[in-house]
């Protein structure tokens, strides 16, 4: 039997492929389980379906296109595993209707896509912040990390409050432009 947690059990004995699978899965296991639990709403059953999903993902991993969206692919596989669970437990009165499950599934996929996009934008913002001059980075830190009021910043830096506001506006515009540029460069 293939064990996705044991790289030596890979069908083609390619430990790199197993390591790649485990890295992708580890980064998204919470999202996958959350998706399943949102539909099934019973922790024990959701855990069983999650385990079945992991096994199905491993069996089908050769079908996964390397540069495509692993989360979307994994959630699609999870959707089919949830459907198999629902069919096997169709006599239970606690199951949602098929329409509701489809709606929950679509909603969860949209939320996941939004989280990934937010993560990309955050990484791009961190890159852009690192490119700022030291004084500008300090203004951003004071304003956003420490939540220092503009008047207090003006006193500390011996500048007018209008000067601080103008600098923060300029920095925000530069960061927005930089993040958008990074997003376009990365194809997001």
From TrEMBL:
<dbReference type="GO" id="GO:0016987">
    <property type="term" value="F:sigma factor activity"/>
</dbReference>
<comment type="similarity">
    <text>Belongs to the sigma-70 factor family. ECF subfamily.</text>
</comment>
<dbReference type="InterPro" id="IPR036388">
    <property type="entry name" value="WH-like_DNA-bd_sf"/>
</dbReference>
<keyword id="KW-0805">Transcription regulation</keyword>
<feature type="domain" description="RNA polymerase sigma-70 region 2">
    <location>
        <begin position="27"/>
        <end position="91"/>
    </location>
</feature>
<keyword id="KW-0731">Sigma factor</keyword>
<dbReference type="InterPro" id="IPR007627">
    <property type="entry name" value="RNA_pol_sigma70_r2"/>
</dbReference>
<dbReference type="Pfam" id="PF04542">
    <property type="entry name" value="Sigma70_r2"/>
</dbReference>
<dbReference type="InterPro" id="IPR013325">
    <property type="entry name" value="RNA_pol_sigma_r2"/>
</dbReference>
<dbReference type="InterPro" id="IPR014284">
    <property type="entry name" value="RNA_pol_sigma-70_dom"/>
</dbReference>
<dbReference type="GO" id="GO:0006352">
    <property type="term" value="P:DNA-templated transcription initiation"/>
</dbReference>
<protein>
    <submittedName>
        <fullName>RNA polymerase sigma factor CnrH</fullName>
    </submittedName>
</protein>
<dbReference type="InterPro" id="IPR013324">
    <property type="entry name" value="RNA_pol_sigma_r3/r4-like"/>
</dbReference>
<keyword id="KW-0804">Transcription</keyword>
<dbReference type="InterPro" id="IPR014331">
    <property type="entry name" value="RNA_pol_sigma70_ECF_RHOBA"/>
</dbReference>
<dbReference type="InterPro" id="IPR039425">
    <property type="entry name" value="RNA_pol_sigma-70-like"/>
</dbReference>
